[in-house]
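User: Can you fold this complex?
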Amino acid sequence: MAEQERRKERLDRGIKARTEGLYAISSWREVSYLLAPRAGLIIILLLLPLIVPGLYWQRVLALAGVYALLAISFDFLAERVGLVCIGGAFMIGVGGYISGALNYYLKLPVFLTIPIGTLGGALLCTLLWLPCLPLRGIYFAVVTFMFPFLTTSLILAGNLFEGTEGLSPIMGFPNTWIAVYLMIVLILLFIFGLRRLCGEDIGVVFAGVKDNDLAVFASGINVTRVKIYALYIASLIGCFAGAFVAHFSGFVGVSLFAVDFSIMPIAACIMGGPGTMVGPALGAFILAPLSELLRGFGQLRVVLYCLVLVGFILFKPEGLLSWAARKYHQIEHWVKV
Amino acid sequence: MEIFVYGVVNGMTFVLWAVGFSFVYGISRLPNFAHGALYVVTGFITWSFINSTGLPHWLSIILSLLIVSFAGVAIYQFVMIRVRGMPISEIIVSFAIALAILEGLRLQGIGGFKGFIGPGYVLPPFVNGVIETRWVTIDFQRLLIIAAGLLLLGSMWLFTHYHKVGLALRAMAQHERAALMLGINSDRMANIALGIGSALAGISAIAVMPLGNVNCESGYSVLTNAIAVCVIGGLGSWVGTILAALILGLATTMMSALGGTMWNNVLVFGLIILILIIRPSGLFGQQKELEERV
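Assistant: Here's the predicted assembly.
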């Protein structure tokens, strides 16, 4: 029994306590303590397209942005509203097919098709998922996971929208800079918007639906209607990502419904830190380039990233961002018991 | 007549696929999404035993079933045990394991490993031969599938209703805390459930795979079909499982005869979504609907 009992003690840094109230603005040190991590992340994100070498990595960055948007939308639905929707591919597909078809058949320009694809796609997603909304937990997850498969087999079996061939060519963005910065600005907008939204009255109702929907029900609030709002907002994000992918790759096909778009955002979300909105985006910007680096290894890429996923769930379920935040705010040291 | 007989065979295939998944999920509430991966793994292990080490057929089957059930126990013991009670993490973790296994089997060029790709991997049937009756021609392997399906269902029913361990497993499903108070070790039960469930996946692989070749893609379809049967039939209900499997089997066979196999997936997924929306506890589900709905 020589083993010494130790435990880790965590204490808040003094500056954290000082910056909690309004008086934080009285000193530059405290203001910068508050602003540094936030501003740092935003500035890094804005500078990324300038830093990365070459066009290829800019395209990777834009695709990482797509995954980031999906991860944010998944995070919002799962952690704030309690709807675990693992059908991100369906949002991508619907948004992509709508804006792609508008461009392909009606020759509408990009700045029209993307908003139409986003708004209309979100409407369509919400309408199609409307019957599943009374479901909870794993059942909702399974249904939403099945939707992309159903649409894929429908498109292939019915030979809709040119079937396996897909719609091509679709008009692209004027240049990659515009695409990348459009993506980045929108990611920031969505993150800020969602964080604000969750602080509003409706955000409290969302949290209520997540924690105890019977209580919300008993307070005379229509739970399904609240879920519809949340779903519309989340699919707005997902469908924009879809429309973006369609124009960015210049091609619309059943590959838009690929499982990648459903699974990768979840991995990013878990890696970055569920429930933080910023974390999932961070995770996506780490995972997507990483998987691009491993592209040469073929199937090994999928295996590795599954292992990363399992590892994070098992050993760091809080995610990178929450871990970093803890290190930033608290001092840790071992004490003898 | 032919459609009917082959539909029944097809339905029994669905039963075989689903029985392991349904056993693990319906009884111990662990969604084992690695089910399809274990199914494929069994096929490959058996194939390797037969073709690489030259073991006899029956011995390699028994060995591979043992290996797979230990793999199931290992999945629970080292991975799932840490996320127990968090359904979404359970799903994600087990699905990630499944993806890692299935894609790992397809890895090429590492250490001279060629990857299990191609049509060369075929398991031998138990009995060769074809039976011809007045209406229909059917081979022995398909009859064996029917027998195996009925046998498995019967023995699982007896096991969960009359054996002590089976009763304990059902108790865990009904009320975990009460079961814990009665001295049932939750982790040991889950280990047993996963072990048996994986072995069931293995048995289904050995019975069904001789009809086609062994490939990684079937892992995904086995999983979705198993989920389909469980969802449509209702979790934890054996009658529901049989009925749902027969419905799906007959429907897909008819679909193939009428409109081509393309529509099979549409049918399966459409049915799942329809049933989940109308009656989320399934046709014969024994859970309270309120638990799943507001």
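Residues 20 and 197 of chain B are 4 Å apart (CA to CA). Strands of chain B lie at 130-132, 137-139.
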